Amino acid sequence: MVAGCQVNAFDNPWHLAYHCPMMQTERVRDVIRYIRRFKGSTIVIRLDDDVVDSSLFASHIHDLALLYETGLRIVVVPGAQAHISKVLDAYGVAWKFQDGIRVTDEEGMDFIKMAAFDISNRIMTRFSAERLTAVIGNWVRARGRGVVGGTDYGSAGVVERVQIEALARAMDDGFIPIIPCVGWSATGKPYNISSTELAVAAAVALKAEKLFFIGSGATISLEDYKMPSGASLSPEGRMAAISVEDIDEFIEMNRGADHPNCPSVELADLLRQGKEACERGVTRAHILDGDVDGVIPAEIFSDLGMGTMIYRSDYGSFRPMQKDDIPAVLSLMNPFVERGILLPRTPEDLESRCPDYAVYEIDGGIRACGALHAYPEGMAEIAAIAVDEAYAHMGIGPKLMDLLIQRARDAGFASVFVLTTQTADWFERFGFKSADISLLPLNRREKWNPKRGSRLLILHF
């Protein structure tokens, strides 16, 4: 046990929960790393009107104000679907949804503008309470959807162009832009635009680092949905991340009458729109539950966050260790050294064998490491396997083993071995078999410590 730490072991031998100052320090380092990374970046937030109506509205705006103070550039796109419905109903204006798009006649547009600008004004007022200046602007050129499949979409429109120069000037002048879900044609005719589509268009035009969809009850969990094999789950079963390649599979595998919690039209739309945003250049899209206090900074300033992140395939990746990684790798190994799982190593040890090591990096943070050491007898050793406990559930450990085993095969080794005191069962899953210590390569056998009593396991190719 690490001094001052409570340790809980799980099935995966590297999935350890450390409730201690050391792990808290690592989380603080994560925050500092993300602040440095995102300073000056743009984030676009589509904020549903159900969140604006909630008791956490002021808290979420306060968090956005804090993010603004760290140097992030913020753009807000308010969703107004519920308020528009209420206003149209109150004035007796007929409307319907067709394929998720609201259809009204042109007379309904005045009431749609009324509801959309009311929500925008409430957000602007809340920013004012935080002593920040937000501005509602007409930065969107739109055109009508027209008649599609025999349906006349009336006042519904699509984004034709985001006036990026004017929007960027507002941000450069210190304003937080608020973009209502209304756009105007070249002749000044207003159209109702999907706030989701508008947020995507704005994020793409601004080359945003992040796009947030924040709505009430938007948690995607294992309890409610089937998950594709590539999805990353948090320890509590929340879908923490999904690649754009897996989104269609997720929607399809949860569709049908035998899936009572099949994705709603709204959730499926968010996932597809997030996918489109990422494919068009937005770094990450996130679906966040507005019923969770602090969800916005938690999603930005930690790798696992509190929502669901949509990403391209470059989210996390293995790469060779570099000399600059050595302090982070030693910090990653330290809990396992304290527990006797790993042998202690010095910076000089790692530097002398730097080419042997591979690391797994997520957003600039080292979350796993391992090494493949060569011996002249046609054998190689897999050593120094360590996975950050907060990420072990993502399957990084098995992926790292597969990488190192394949690397040994490609190099022409006849076999690969491991020495372990506590994790033999885990290595056996990969086909390793117990063997006598006498089978160790001579150079390695001389370093074997009988007091430590490590077991030898070998995988023959």
Written description of the protein model:
- This protein has 461 residues and is α/β, with parallel strands linked by helices.
- The protein is 34% helix and 26% strand.
- It has two domains: 26-314, Carbamate kinase (3-Layer(aba) Sandwich); 317-460, Gcn5-related N-acetyltransferase (GNAT) (Aminopeptidase).
- β5 and β6 form a beta hairpin.
- The chain is elongated.
- Mean pLDDT is 87; it is low at 1-23.
Q: Notable features of this structure?
A:
15 helices; 7-stranded mixed beta sheet; Carbamate kinase; 26 strands; alpha/beta; 2 domains; Aminopeptidase; disordered N terminus; 461 residues
Task: Provide a brief overview of the structure.
It contains 15 helices and 26 strands. The chain is of the alpha/beta class and 461 residues long. Strand 9 and strand 10 form a beta hairpin.
Strand-helix topology:
Elements: E1 6-9, E2 16-19, H1 21-38, E3 42-47, H2 49-52, H3 57-69, E4 73-78, H4 81-90, E5 96-98, E6 101-103, H5 109-129, E7 134-136, E8 140-144, E9 147-148, E10 151-152, E11 157-162, H6 164-172, E12 176-178, E13 182-184, E14 190-192, H7 195-205, E15 210-215, E16 232-233, E17 239-243, H8 247-253, H9 265-279, E18 284-289, H10 295-300, E19 308-311, E20 316-320, H11 326-338, H12 347-352, E21 357-362, E22 365-375, E23 379-387, H13 396-410, E24 415-420, H14 424-428, E25 433-435, H15 442-445, E26 455-460
Parallel strand pairs: 3-4, 3-15, 7-12, 15-18, 17-19, 23-24
Antiparallel strand pairs: 1-2, 5-6, 8-11, 9-10, 13-14, 16-17, 18-19, 20-21, 21-22, 22-23, 24-26, 25-26
Helix pairs in contact: 4-5, 7-9
